[in-house]
Structure formats: C-alpha cells, structure tokens
C-alpha cells in the first residue's frame, strides 16, 4: 500500500572469525594489546525530524535550507485551536456505510508541530495511526504510519504524501499544520483557480510538486481574514486527483481554527465524504507527545471517549 522506509533497531551485527579483532579495536603492532573500541553513537529517535531514514523530505531534500540564516516565519497553523498549543479533537464520517472515527492531537512549538491521528473505528482499522513531525526552520516534514497489522511504523515516501490516507478521501496534506515545504514555485502557464470552491473571496495560489512527483500541482485557497487554507486541489497533468474544502468553519473562541465540517473528493473513484468534528478541542499535556504515537494514542482514547449510542 505504501512506498515507505521501515524503521528497525539497525542492521544485524556482523559475524567475525574466531580470534579476529573487532572492528575499531585493532591490535597495536608488536604489543599484543588492543585499542579501546570507538564509542558507538546512540540510535536516533525515529519520531524526531531527520531520523529513521536516508530520504529527507521538503526543502532539506534539495539542500535549499541554508545554515546560519533566519528561516521565515511559518504561515498560520491549519487545524488549530486558538489559545491552545497542545490539544486534541474528534472527527467522524461515514465511509462505505460504516462509521469512522478519528482522534487528532496537535502540539505547536516555535515553528515546530507534532500531529497524531488515531483511528478508533471501525474495528478492523482501530489502532491505526499517523504521526507528522514538522519543522519550519529546517524545512522538513516527515510522516510515519502504522496499522494494526504492521509490525512497526513506516515512513511515508515523499511521492506518496500527495495521496490520501488509507481507506479515506482526506489527504496527508490536509492533516499537516503548514504547507508542505517540498512544494515548488507557482507555475506561470496556468491560472490558479478553484471554480468548484465556495470560497470565492479566498486568495488562490498554485505550487508545483517536488521532483519525486512529476506533473503534479497543488492549488490552495487561503482565507485572507485568517491566513489559513480553506480549500485545496491536487492534480497531475491537469487531471484532478482529489479535492478538499471546509464546508462549515469553526465558531468564535477556541473552535475558530477548527472547521466543523469538511468535504473531500477523490477524482479516481468519484467518492465524496463529509467529515464532521465531534465536540470541541480538549487540552492535552504537552509532555504526552514526548513518547511518540504509541503512548499518545492510548491517552487520546481516554481524553476523547466515543459517545454512547
């Protein structure tokens, strides 16, 4: 289903001949003594940006993040609970006549964001999660996922980030806090427009996909009042792959940055699904994100239990 990099504890240890000196501990000539082994660096945390795989994502992949220069401030955060920097909320939908429930948690820092999406229903998908680590200063955005049948988390390859979540119409881009940093310049040969969107007064811009996605273009509509994305279309060589739009924005207060309803459409299947927020955001202790998605998803089920009936 995915083209991804699998995380593991590292390569298996090499075998050596009996009596042979270990690597990094050569014998001193003529003395018979061994040198002290060189220190082994600790294993990287796979849920921190830049760890867990050789394929960088975003600007870092092209070497366009200059060291020593101040990075531009990120855009206003999408799917944000105004006044809360660490929060969670629930989303429900009907998919194939089956109710689907997602729990989404987000922690915002100084130009960084951690997002965890957990599926709690239907039963066969329960426990599936998505983990997104974004760093605006470094120009990176890395995405991992794990389903109930997978032995470990896998990192989603960049060319897959413009598609949809498994068994859903919502895309990975729609869950990210900020615009994906690997998107390129605006194409000059086509006008940026979303004629199907209800957001007529929104500012619309298009961006070329990265080198890993030839022919791909992302068009976004931004609400000038908030600076947040309210509609998005992904097309490849002029053919629509998917659309996403806020149908009902959030109300005043902490809910302002969290839409009440969104609608997503897939061009290949013609399927359209409406996603509804179930209740308001709840605060999440920031340290709950430190252990990664495994402990966090259990905490989210306690914070956002499904309503009876």
From TrEMBL:
<feature type="region of interest" description="Disordered">
    <location>
        <begin position="1"/>
        <end position="77"/>
    </location>
</feature>
<feature type="compositionally biased region" description="Low complexity">
    <location>
        <begin position="18"/>
        <end position="31"/>
    </location>
</feature>
<protein>
    <submittedName>
        <fullName>Uncharacterized protein</fullName>
    </submittedName>
</protein>
<feature type="region of interest" description="Disordered">
    <location>
        <begin position="268"/>
        <end position="295"/>
    </location>
</feature>
